[in-house]
Amino acid sequence: MELVCPAGSLPALEAAIDNGADAVYIGFSDETNARNFGGLNFNDKNALRALERIRNRGRKLYVAINTYAKPDSFTRWQAAVDRAAGLNADAVILADIGLMGYAQRRHPDLALHLSVQASATSAPALEFYRQQFGIRRAVLPRVLSLKQVQQLTAASCVELEVFGFGSLCIMAEGRCHLSSYITGESPNKNGVCSPAKAVEWRKVANELETRLNGVLIDRFADHENAGYPTLCKGRFIVDGKRQHALEEPTSLNSMALLPELKAAGIKAIKLEGRQRSPAYVSQVVRTWREAIDQVLQHGDDFLVKDRWQETLAKNSEGKQTTLGAYDRPWQ
Amino acid sequence: MLAVKRSISQLGYRFGCKILPLLPSWPGEVAFIKLLNTRLSEELHDGLFDFLDNQVLEVNVTDLQIRLRVSKRDAAFVRALADVEADSTISANFADFLAIASGREDPDTLFFQRRLCLGGQTEIGLTVKNRLDAFDRSRIPQWALRWLEVIAAELAVITPKYRE
Amino acid sequence: MQLALGPAQYYWRRNDINHFYEAMLSTPLDIIYLGEVVCGKRHELRAADWLERARILAEATDKQIVLSTLTLLESNADLNWVRKICDNGNWLVEANDMSAVQLLSEARLPFTCGPAVNIYNHKAVEHLMSMGMVRWTVPVEMGSQQLSGVLNACEKKPEVEVFAYGHMPLAYSARCFTARHHGLDKDNCAYRCMEYPHGLPLASQEGEELFVINGIQTLSGEAVNLLSHYPQLCERGIDILRLSPQWQQMAPIIDAFDRARRDDLDPQLLPPGVDGYWCDRPGLELIARSGIATSE
């Protein structure tokens, strides 16, 4: 099982390598990737440095170009694929079929991974991407239960990668327009959910208010933890009740399922968090490296250590970590 | 030995909390901005901090009541005028800033725990955070990094985590 | 310009569904989409029932009948439902995810793509056309500018359909929010979404209507209304306007759009709704207030 780790910067990439990543995924600093945040990601100079460090240590580099290309700037997305191919990246992670067609024709040797943003959840959907574009691996959306993941792995024609840890996106990725409904910008079109320029944090009386394009998302009392200002994690009024109507700020942690995922034939575990610091990457990657090694060596005797749980809990968005959709009662 | 070291840091920290707020402006500001200009010269040259042009960023060290006000003009960080309102504010206590700087803690983690606060234009604060995360630590002298880590570790123990 | 009735989003009772579609027969609609697109657990009408409904309607009208597939597939049961719809043997199918696209193209059948299939550029349109796509309903978040960009760059165009009236489907999740609201989990949801024939409104703590909860789906809090943009929609080469089924007052909505195509456009006939997406703005904004929007 391959451990696929996030890096939004060169130090984060080094932290991932140093702590045992098998592969690191990065993005270019523009709207071609789904973490299009100011100051994050790689320009050409840093991408080259990244590649050099990856090669020196015998790891793999994946480049996420996982937003949907716009017609009038299609060449920008094409150029991103060309840059990744030029770097000799081990794979590009794509979501847009227009771009997949281009990558396949122009760079037939470049491995294509299907991004979670493409939201493929069934064997025929995976077969579509394999037949049409020759994808070798797909990242599954965080909407399937463990049983569904097992069934899909058995029926799949390509390698499957699943999310192990990170901030939890509760909607089917790539099929959520909540952000653009309020702010005009969305993951699919702009590579951002709740763009920072639309976010406002303000202290009002004893509460911390957060707004998105003027719309009140939540109010936190002094003792309450905060989350990312995304719409799905706000507190709203439904039927007169103030509640986390969609989801609380929560992180996904599927570590306890590692033996089952391995037995099912899952080929890779992905950690979320290209927007996080090298400190997060070090701690989370080291923890997952130890856990995966434990599963590989001891198989069924695997137990999640308290120490791992503490480290992951500390780095989580929200206090708790849950299995998310893997666990039916969550749904 | 450990106990002696700890009481010295505690004494230093308490002294700082008492004395620094009494000063009209923090004397270290000029030196700090100079340090930024030397250490981040490559980034400045590459235009990676252009988003701060004519913007005022305030770094607010809450427990020491230090306010660092930074702007950028012509490829260099400069002090912001005292009477100009900040466009973006980042606040935390000294220990948490050092924890971030030394790579002990992840800023988002501190943010979730309400120990790091962003005010004003979130995008500026977020971009600064990401740019500093991207800073190549191997360019800091080894001895300085070690000191940073030692002091950060000390302060993490003696400073209360939450504002009461 | 043709008028289409999109697939119903909410969970209605069998009798209500049947009455609703019977009432649609006498309207000036050209196309009717039928089928469950939100949740594979909803069983008032199963796949076979929807096929039967299609047969009954087709016998009674010469409107085009199209069968829509589920949007988010999770279980094998969901996939089987989609297979049954794709294998219907008679009617055109609206694919709402790539599973359906694959099944239909394998069977060498023409198909349409619904708004939740991610098609954002001409290359994607052309690829799907090469596989049999004959009609494309544009993602709800795509603005008129980007749409023009796509269409201008296409060598061959499909029929183009735009979501012109109703609460817009914005997101799909593994989790059922209606069940969650009632403290139930999805496996034991008790089909509570049936109690909300036009969804469960979600407002901000300041009372601003933001979204509508509908089982695993989240819809826009306000209905989109592109009636005042009718002239521009024609100009941009849109072939079909999609009107989304409403629990009540569907006929006046159809009538207002029908008048527009008979040179009798009156935006005052309907509540203003929102049009932000179409104007390349946040979806909840209302750009053209009451008057007839002029193209830039």
Automatic annotation (TrEMBL), chain A:
Pathway: Cofactor biosynthesis; ubiquinone biosynthesis. One of its GO terms (biological process) is ubiquinone biosynthetic process. Keywords: 4Fe-4S, Iron, Iron-sulfur, Metal-binding, Ubiquinone biosynthesis. GO terms for molecular function: 4 iron, 4 sulfur cluster binding; metal ion binding. The keyword Iron applies. Transmembrane segments: none annotated. Pfam families: Peptidase_U32. Its cofactor is [4Fe-4S] cluster. [4Fe-4S] cluster binds at C169, C176, C193, C232. InterPro entries: Peptidase_U32, RNA/ubiquinone_mod_enzymes, UbiU. PANTHER family: PEPTIDASE U32 FAMILY (PTHR30217), UBIQUINONE BIOSYNTHESIS PROTEIN UBIU (PTHR30217:SF3). Forms a heterodimer with UbiV. Required for O(2)-independent ubiquinone (coenzyme Q) biosynthesis. Together with UbiV, is essential for the C6-hydroxylation reaction in the oxygen-independent ubiquinone biosynthesis pathway. Belongs to the peptidase U32 family. UbiU subfamily. This is Ubiquinone biosynthesis protein UbiU. It comes from Microbulbifer okhotskensis.
TrEMBL record, chain B:
Residues 36-132 form the SCP2 domain. It comes from the Bacteria. Gene3D superfamilies: SCP2 sterol-binding domain. This is SCP2 sterol-binding domain-containing protein. It comes from Microbulbifer okhotskensis. The lineage of its organism: Bacteria, Pseudomonadati, Pseudomonadota, Gammaproteobacteria, Cellvibrionales.
TrEMBL record, chain C:
One of its GO terms (molecular function) is 4 iron, 4 sulfur cluster binding. Keywords: 4Fe-4S, Iron, Iron-sulfur, Metal-binding, Ubiquinone biosynthesis. Its cofactor is [4Fe-4S] cluster. It comes from the Bacteria. GO terms for biological process: ubiquinone biosynthetic process. [4Fe-4S] cluster binds at C39, C176, C189, C193. Pathway: Cofactor biosynthesis; ubiquinone biosynthesis. Forms a heterodimer with UbiU. HAMAP family: UbiV. Required for O(2)-independent ubiquinone (coenzyme Q) biosynthesis. Together with UbiU, is essential for the C6-hydroxylation reaction in the oxygen-independent ubiquinone biosynthesis pathway. PANTHER family: PEPTIDASE U32 FAMILY, UBIQUINONE BIOSYNTHESIS PROTEIN UBIV. Belongs to the peptidase U32 family. UbiV subfamily. This is Ubiquinone biosynthesis protein UbiV. It comes from Microbulbifer okhotskensis.
